[in-house]
Amino acid sequence: MKYQTLNQRKVVWLLLVVLVVMFSGCASLNSKNWKRRMAAVEKLTDQVLLAEIAMTDKNLYVRKAAVNKLIDQTFLAKIAMEGNELQLRLAAVESLTDQPLLAKIAMGENFWDVRRDAVYKLTDQKLLANIALKGKDLEIRLAAIEKLTDQKLLAIISKDGKDLDTRKKAFQKLTTIVQ
Q1: Any alpha helices (H) in 2-137, and if so which ranges?
Q2: Taking the domains of the chain in order of start, what are their residue ranges?
C-alpha cells in the first residue's frame, strides 16, 4: 500500500464511492423497485412499520415478507381478518399462536380457507369445542372435532351439536378415544 501512486489511490477511492452509492440504494422502503423494498423489510424489526407495510405496500411479495417478520399477535390477527389478499391472510394465520385470536378468526372470518387454517392451529380444547358447536359451516365444525381429545367436550357435542353430521362425528371420535 505504501507504494501506490496517486492515480491508484484515486481509482481505489472512486471504486469505494461507487460501491457505497450502489449498495446504499439497495434496501430502501421508498424504492420503486419491489426487490429493494423487500430487502429493506428483511432488515426491519419495528412491528408497527412492518404491519403498515404488510397492509399497504403495492407488491404482494413485499407485503408477505413483512407478515413473515411480524411477531405481534394483534397485528397478525388484524392482517388475517382484513388483509387484501388470501395469501396474505393465510400467512398471517400461519404465524399466529394466540389461541383466543385464532378462535375469533375461525368463528368470524369470511374466507373459508382462513377459518380452516385457524382451526388447524388451535389446541385449546374449550375453544375447539365452541367452534364445533357454533361454527359457521359444517366443514369448520368437523375440523374442530377432529382436533378435540377431551371426552367430556366430545360427549356434549355428540348430544348438543348443531346438526346430525356434527353429532355423529363427535360420537365416532368419542368411541374411538374410549376404545
Answers
A1: 6-24, 34-43, 47-56, 60-69, 73-82, 86-95, 99-108, 112-121, 125-134
A2: 26-96, 97-179
